[in-house]
Design a protein that fits this description.
Blueprint (H helix, E strand, L loop, with lengths): L2 H13 L4 E2 H8 L3 H13 L3 E4 L3 E4 L1 H12 L3 H16 L2 E8 L2 E8 L21 H8 L3 H10 L13 H14 L2 E3 L7 E9 L5 E10 L5 H5 L2 H14 L6
Antiparallel strand pairs: 1-3, 2-3, 4-5, 4-8, 6-7, 7-8
């Protein structure tokens, strides 16, 4: 690495801890103030550094822009893969990853069950909005106007005895999802399978995707499935951290 680049990066790292004076920064990189000033002026011209008053320097806006771009361009599927693969390997049940786009919830990744009974779901298939855990997670995070727009076009076919019917009941379900931080599909989509889902969040706390674990009822009853909720929530948090989320 060139000496000038190394010194410039050191200056940026130091400013990450707070504003610094020219004297302080010169002491950190061990050069004369004139050399430090030249580096700072170059960084300032590219908005990596900005002057704070007469004697202090702080980080510039270009760094925040670059950080946001880097986080936005991260592939949630790739970032979440280690955590989801580990959950699937440890428990052996089907794990889905789904995302929301233009009124639809799409499965974007799947880790097959290691048991003989398997789900027909596949990557690229749409998830029903009214009766799947992943859809509940993703719609619960929508702004109110966007959610109302989706609800206006939603249909609520009864697929099982437990399927939620109608927008009023569905809105109440989304309120429970927001309050609990997870969603369930209690044999609402298929009467022989139930599911739990959790959000994968980004750097601003926004929901980027939903992860779910689906299990045939013959393998686990509903209470048994809920006993794995801590595993799912830990998986969702681990995936979120890889996507830039900072837990409180």
């Amino acid at each position: 690495m060139s000496q000038s680049l190394d010194r410039a990066l050191t200056l940026v790292s130091q400013l990450a801890t707070g504003p610094k004076t020219l004297d302080e920064l010169s002491g950190v990189i061990g050069v004369h103030k004139s050399t430090t000033l030249r580096l700072l002026r170059t960084l300032e011209s590219h908005r990596f550094v900005q002057r704070d008053g007469v004697h202090h320097y702080r980080l510039g806006t270009a760094l925040f822009d670059l950080a946001n771009r880097a986080l936005e361009e991260r592939d949630v599927r790739r970032a979440a893969e280690p955590a989801l693969r580990d959950l699937n390997a440890r428990l052996g049940h089907t794990v889905h990853l789904a995302s929301y786009e233009d009124g639809e919830v799409i499965y974007i990744d799947k880790y097959e069950s290691r048991h003989q009974m398997r789900m027909y779901s596949r990557i690229g298939r749409r998830a029903p909005l009214h009766c799947t855990a992943v859809a509940k997670i993703l719609l619960a995070d929508l702004p109110a106007p966007a959610l109302q727009k989706v609800l206006a076009t939603m249909e609520f076919p009864r697929l099982t005895a437990n399927t939620i019917i109608g927008p009023t009941a569905y809105m109440a379900e989304l309120e429970r999802v927001r309050a609990n931080g997870y969603a369930v599909d209690n044999a609402e989509h298929e009467d022989f399978i139930h599911c739990i889902g959790a959000p994968i969040k980004g750097s601003r706390g926004e929901v980027l995707a939903a992860v779910s674990m689906s299990v045939p009822k013959v393998l686990l009853d509903f209470d048994g499935l809920l006993a794995h909720l801590p595993d799912l929530l830990a998986t969702a948090e681990a995936a979120s951290i890889e996507c830039g989320y900072v837990p409180r």
